[in-house]
Amino acid sequence: MEEREIDRAVAFLREQPAQDDPGSHDPAATPAASDTASADESREETAATTTGAEGTAAQDRQVSPERMAEVQELGEKVIAVLRTIHDPEIPVNVFDMGLIYRVDIEDDNTVTIDMTLTTPHCPVAETLPVEVEQRVAAIEGVKGCRVNIVWDPPWHPGMMSEEARLELGFLY
Questions:
Q1: Nearest Cα to Cα of residue 47 among 106, 116, 1
Q2: How far is Cα 4 from Cα 6, in angstroms, rounded to an integer?
Q3: What is the DSSP code (8-state) at residue 93?
Q4: d(Cα 9, Cα 15) in Å, to the nearest integer?
Q5: Could you give the domains of the chain?
Q6: For the sheet containing 144-149, what is the strand order?
Q7: Which of 8, 27, 107, 141 has the fewest Cβ atoms surrounding its Cβ within 10 A?
């Protein structure tokens, strides 16, 4: 994995809005549906944001360089595993498809993943999130994994990485 990609994919101790507060949605934290020119960068920045604690409490304390290195290493492992998970009908992994919106690594190394599907009627809607949860939970050092299916923003082809678009013939 390229150093630039790792740096963008692993942002430490970033404040996250409360999930039950619909007014706290930060449009800058998710790729805009109309911004396909920077979709790769936006997807990668928001796809795997790792945090070390719950929201603002994390920003009020110092995090040791050892813990930051541990979270970065674990984040890299999570992304590597996500890149091995494929929808059986699409020859592109879930990470490069742009289906992974956020990865949080909590203080106890529980991983929470926000992901979407290409459509609410996706044939693998019942199996793909379970596979993501089980495969990430099996990573050495991960205490457990929760997968949240989210629909905002709705997935669109511009969220795919350039490699994914090439693979599927969307880019020439």
A1: 116
A2: 5
A3: B
A4: 15
A5: 3-13+34-167 (3.30.300.130)
A6: 100-105, 110-115, 144-149
A7: 27
Q: Which pLDDT tens digit goes with each residue over 15-66?
A: 333 333 333 333 333 333 333 334 444 444 444 344 443 444 445 568 899 9
Give the ranges where the chain is alpha helix by DSSP (H). 3-9, 39-47, 65-82, 128-137, 162-167
Q: Are strands 110-115 and 144-149 parallel, antiparallel or unpaired?
A: parallel
The residue type of 114 is: D
Q: How far is CA 87 from CA 126, 139, 161, in A?
A: 12, 20, 16
The one-character DSSP state at 155 is P
Over residues 106-137, the pLDDT tens digits come to: 999 999 999 999 999 999 999 999 999 999 99
How far apart are alpha carbons 21 and 71 in whole angstroms? 27
Q: What is the length of the chain?
A: 172
Report the largest interatomic distance among the alpha carbons of the chain, rounded to a whole angstrom.
Answer: 48
